[in-house]
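Researcher: Batch entry, complex prediction.
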Amino acid sequence: MTDTATIETSATGTGELLGIDNLSVSFHTRRGVVKAVRNLNLKIREGETLALVGESGCGKSVTAHAITRLVPMPPGVIESGIIRFRGTNLLSLPEKEMRSLRGSKISMIFQEPMTSLNPVFTVGTQIAEVFVTHEKLGRKEAFARAVELLDLVKIPDPAKRAKSYPHQLSGGMRQRVMIAMALASPEPGLMIADEPTTALDVTIQAQILQLLNELKKGVGMALLLITHDMGVVAETADRVAVMYAGRKVEDAPVEELFANPRHPYTVGLLGCQCSAPSNRNAVRLTSISGSVPDLLTLGDGCPFANRCGNVKNECMESFPDVSTAGEDHEFRCHNPITESGASS
Amino acid sequence: MLKFILKRLGLLIPTLLGVVTLVFFMIALAPGDPARIMLGERANAEQLAQLRSELGLDQPLSKQYLLYLGRVIRGDLGKSIVTQQKITDELTDRLLATIELAITSTIFASILGIVLGVAAARKRNSWVDYSTMTGALVGVSMPVFWLALVLIMIFSVGLDLLPTGGRMNVRLYFIPITNFYLIDGIIMWFREGKADYFVSALKHLILPTIALGTIPLAIIARTTRSSMLEVLKQDYVKTARAAGVPERKVVFRYALRNALLPVITVIGIQFGLLLSGAILTETIFAWPGIGKWIYHSISARDFPAVQGGILFISFFFVMINLIVDLLYSVINPRIRLK
Ligand SMILES: Nc1ncnc2c1ncn2[C@@H]1O[C@H](COP(=O)(O)OP(=O)(O)OP(=O)(O)O)[C@@H](O)[C@H]1O
Ligand code: SF4
Ligand SMILES: [Mg+2]
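Model: Structure tokens for the complex:
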């Protein structure tokens, strides 16, 4: 293992695990430049769960991929920014050292358990690969560790299941396998879960989330949880960052955000959850009328202006600066919601 | 796995029966009287009757069919009218020549095709990609006999580097052992301590291999490229990368194994086609294989020989399909475990 801690240790106070400063990511496509993420700031403390929420296409996955440096380049370009992980800027790390972080200190699970596992290898082999890669274990030993992990994620009869191929397992099982793979890391620091339960049915969703929570506490890792589902946020997260059209628009501890949302978009998100508690995935914020602006033609103003009930003239001209509301609560809005829950 | 193999083998019997039936009726029901065609216009009635009874043509068709079937099952394909040799003997002598050439062509096409296909996919839209794909397009559209003649013109006639035809320098006295001349060459190398046989066999193989292998090469390269591009987009490739697996391993262990699934089918089909479709190439390179033999049998109107040859090749085609299917199931658990 490469000891990345020796490169640079300037951890900025208060137990910061991951700090993103001013990150901008674009995609240079044939149609033009898509500014997928703009001037994003984000912070995750050791052991904390940060939920990243927002409508489809707002740049959540791109942010996650930027952290692991798996943004496809080309067409992707990281225009600016710093991503600090335990004091080391990941964006300036040589590829080899970045690779040794992937799957060990920063691991990732994806939305689609159906397609995220390789169909031609047994799940045990795929988990074992992480040990082979990072701990240079032999195949047999690595496989034995994989079986232990399958047990840890509560898969019954793990020794037998390790020899199964993905198509022989149910969706929930596969997602457990993905989690096991992400846990295979020798010293888990950050787990990024990109909509880990969206593809599963509701009862399985709850089980998987509970499992993630338990393991997180047991292992002491931080979790970046990407989701559409405010219900999931309420149950799992310590803090919430809300993204809209590539921008972070609000960021607060979870109770604070639910009790006192300041950004009109956040209010819309929360409202949506209340109006459709049953079918969470299908609804996807239909209660906020209008649609997400085209990232290709986005101007300088607030991207939410075309859908916002609080819109003012200056909203068209400039993107608002950061305002704070109490401790650890930030938002960017020219005309924020004032009283808790009330929308004008 | 065992169940899959047994099931697949069970299917083999009706398939082969179908092949035999088809080949029999194709020849038997073809217009014209074989005896008359073979003996020519001036044969008299007595001669015709004698040949007919020799060939069993005086029996009712159903009886002919059953007799034929019975003989085929016992491995008897009859005698060639021209040489009076047993057809199975004639075929096995030549079969190995054909197989040797088909194998070298397939290996040449597969290795180069997969390497080029993977390179083109990894360096998509680069000059590697463009030149490979342009080459592949030219490759598939080139007539094989023309390519064969061009190769002979350049490398044999022009540069005098390689022989124009045959399997081995005639001045090397040599009794075939396995009838795969490359292997025989190695055996002779050990026995006699000189590499001449091997080198000569190799030299004779090069041009026919390239000529025959070019179209399969182009097809395999294109299939590999598109399959690889598809696979590299898959989520499980992202998973492997996110787990920190080195890129080369991602490509060659995780992606390639998936990408090869359609390629293996293509290779199998190409190999089957090489066995049966080498008639022109074998004739041009004076390669003493089945293709050349069938060509001569057709010219000589040797009906039992043509019938036997076609049956033989069909039989091989079926076997190769079986092998491809089994191979496919080895690397694709979704089939094996169904
Ligand atoms: N490879 C790419 N090429 C071009 N554009 C891309 C690429 N990847 C992402 N984008 C663009 O970046 C924007 C953000 O995409 P992203 O996948 O981060 O959204 P998301 O918030 O994860 O949405 P979802 O909830 O649907 O997963 C989208 O507009 C998308 O079109
Ligand atoms: S800045 Fe203006 S348009 Fe944007 S959310 Fe605030 S009030 Fe609405
Ligand atoms: Mg996404």
